[in-house]
């Protein structure tokens, strides 16, 4: 990664971290932020489980076990954010029961960040049964590594003298710890397949892709003068009201 790209990485990552931390700190934007995190974390579970099945079928039991743990962690993360919404008497909108929300979601289904991040890859090439293992491992390594830092920043803006926020802070820090562990196994998986210099090169390539993706996301945000659609509604899901909250990692 050249010097200019490194500067863009620092500036872009700093700006993104500031925005997410601000949105988590602000009581008005916190519910939507929690909802987006719940959807992202829970939504990755089926994909990871499909990759686990593929790794197992290919005889890579080590990777299959790591992907199983990864999927379980993401499922727990979704529950943490769902329970945080519950504390605010909110829940993620059921898009099946909210046609207008589903329509808005459909309109914004194409994500400028991921469009740029995976530029050159077709939808078919990104499916779990088809994605190149190196592409998956390196691209996800970058996302998990950066997410671990972003979650710490989000947690650190929450006050500790208010019980609900203090509990959420603990939960987010546990998520950050898990993301660090995910990044570690993903890099190890790359090192099992490539020479060290090749690992560095492919990670550098995906780091550059992320810089470009952040720029595309910022550009799209500036062009869209309207606010993002709400992802939450009042009330608590029945399954959460009857289920104990997940234990937090130490």
Automatic annotation (TrEMBL):
Membrane-crossing segments per the record: none
Origin superkingdom: Bacteria
InterPro entries: Ferritin-like (IPR012347), Ferritin-like_SF (IPR009078)
Region Disordered, annotated ranges: 226-250
The name this protein goes by in its record: Rubrerythrin family protein
Organism: Stenomitos frigidus ULC18
CDD domains, A to Z: Ferritin_like (cd00657)
């Amino acid at each position: 990664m050249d010097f200019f790209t490194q500067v863009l990485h620092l500036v872009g990552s700093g700006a993104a971290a500031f925005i997410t931390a601000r949105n988590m700190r602000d009581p008005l934007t916190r519910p939507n932020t929690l909802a987006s995190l719940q959807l992202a974390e829970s939504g990755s579970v089926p994909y990871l489980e499909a990759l686990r099945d593929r790794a197992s079928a290919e005889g890579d039991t080590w990777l299959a076990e790591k992907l199983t743990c990864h999927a379980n962690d993401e499922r727990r993360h979704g529950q943490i954010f769902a329970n945080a919404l519950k504390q605010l008497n909110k829940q993620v909108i059921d898009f099946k029961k909210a046609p207008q929300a589903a329509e808005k979601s459909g309109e914004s289904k194409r994500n400028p960040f991921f469009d740029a991040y995976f530029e050159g890859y077709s939808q078919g090439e990104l499916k779990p049964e088809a994605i190149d293992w190196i592409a998956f491992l390196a691209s996800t390594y970058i996302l998990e590594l950066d997410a671990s830092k972003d979650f710490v920043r989000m947690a650190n803006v929450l006050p500790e003298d208010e019980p609900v926020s203090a509990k959420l802070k603990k939960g987010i820090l546990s998520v950050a710890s898990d993301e660090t562990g995910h990044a570690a196994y993903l890099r190890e998986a790359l090192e099992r397949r490539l020479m060290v210099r090749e690992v560095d090169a492919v990670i550098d390539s995906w780091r550059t892709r992320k810089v470009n993706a952040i720029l595309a996301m910022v550009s799209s945000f500036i062009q869209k003068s309207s606010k993002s659609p709400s992802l939450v509604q009042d009330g608590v899901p029945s399954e959460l009201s009857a289920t104990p909250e997940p234990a937090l990692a130490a």
